[in-house]
Amino acid sequence: MHLRGLLALAAVASLGFGCSDTDKTNDDVAPGGSDSGGANASGGSAGNSASGNAGSAGSFNLGGSVGQNDGGTSAAGGDGGLEDLPSEVNVIITADNAYGFGYGTKTALANYFGGVENQLSADIFLCPIGRGPEQYVVPAEDANAGGYLYIIGYADKSTTQGVIAKFFREGAAPVYTGAGKWEVCATGQDYDPPSGGPDLATINDYIGKCNAGELDPTTSSVGWVDTTGNEHGRLTFGEDNSTERDLPTPGNEFPVVCEIEPSARWMWFDWQAPGSDKSPFIWPEGSGNVTKDFLIFRLGADQVPSKPPK
Questions:
Q1: What is d(CA 278, CA 151) in angstroms, rounded to the nearest whole number?
Q2: What pLDDT is attached to residue 303?
């Protein structure tokens, strides 16, 4: 079963659920109320991966924005606000197992594409686009809602966990997971598919706690960490998107994901002690939330593609 939902600004919008082992691109998601900023989505057609065509993506329109002076500055190097970029952002993303993404400021998400939970391996990896990874088109005004790009991730307690994505717009260099000054906060608040994951209010509450560095040190990263990390864990970049896989092994946990270049790397939180020879992308056994998810990843404005040349 595959569950897909979309949450709008400030309040939880209506969730659309699609159960399918075939096409995931044709789900319709009901819009949120006007007080929430509104959100709607319409699925597009997936292309033939053998021909290298991604096909037409589903188009999304999210309402809501926040003041640019709320942007702040992060360890990721965000300058507190994006330029008024004229081009829409195309996104190809998948996760083992669940993800959401959106744009916002240092203190809150302004919009959120969320609730995609992959419970089958085919829903994560298989081509074409829409069978495994999803493709989105984010209007420029929604991508310009604040100084940060956010990804939310969480996983089941089995086999492997990670997220990989590409964000690109006409005339600018792509942004990939696993490249650049990403940071992560491991909240320690456990969600497993098919729970639906954290709602927008919960995510924003935890962004505030991550900023304050006030999370439980026994179950979380306490605050934001980069690849250097702290005694509670670190951000980790895994294998690039170039190597096929039969069975998960350290350094080769995932098969190739279609329509994402090898420049992208899998990304997750490493909760282990420094020097561990175990992969943070492979479930370590047990039933507790040892991986400390759900996870909030973010990238500052100076790492998001710049204004396309005229």
A1: 24
A2: 61
* Strand, helix or coil for residue 29: strand
Dmax (CA) for the chain in angstroms is: 54
Distance from C-alpha of 173 to C-alpha of 307, rounded to nearest angstrom: 10
Pairing of strands 148-154, 295-300: antiparallel
Residue 8: its pLDDT value, please? 27
For 109, other C-beta atoms within 10 Å of its C-beta total 28
Convert the pLDDT of each residue in 55-72 to its tens digit. 333 333 222 333 333 433
Token output for 58: 């589903």
The pTM of this model reads 0.76
On the CB side of 277, CA atoms within 13 Å amount to: 0
Single-letter amino acid, residue 280? P
Give the tens place of pLDDT for each residue, 148-198.
Answer: 999 999 999 999 999 999 999 876 789 999 999 999 999 999 999 999 999
In this structure, which long-range contacts are made by residues 43-49, counting pairs with CB atoms below 8 Å and at least 24 apart in sequence?
A: 43/130, 44/135, 45/130, 46/128, 46/129, 46/130, 46/131, 46/135, 47/128, 47/129, 48/128, 49/127, 49/128, 49/129, 49/258, 49/259
The answer to whether residue 292 scores a pLDDT higher than 90 is yes
Burial of residue 236, with CB atoms counted within 10 A of its CB: 0-12 exposed, 13-18 middle, 19 or more buried: buried
**For residue 70, which phi and psi values (nearest 5 degrees)?**
-90, 0
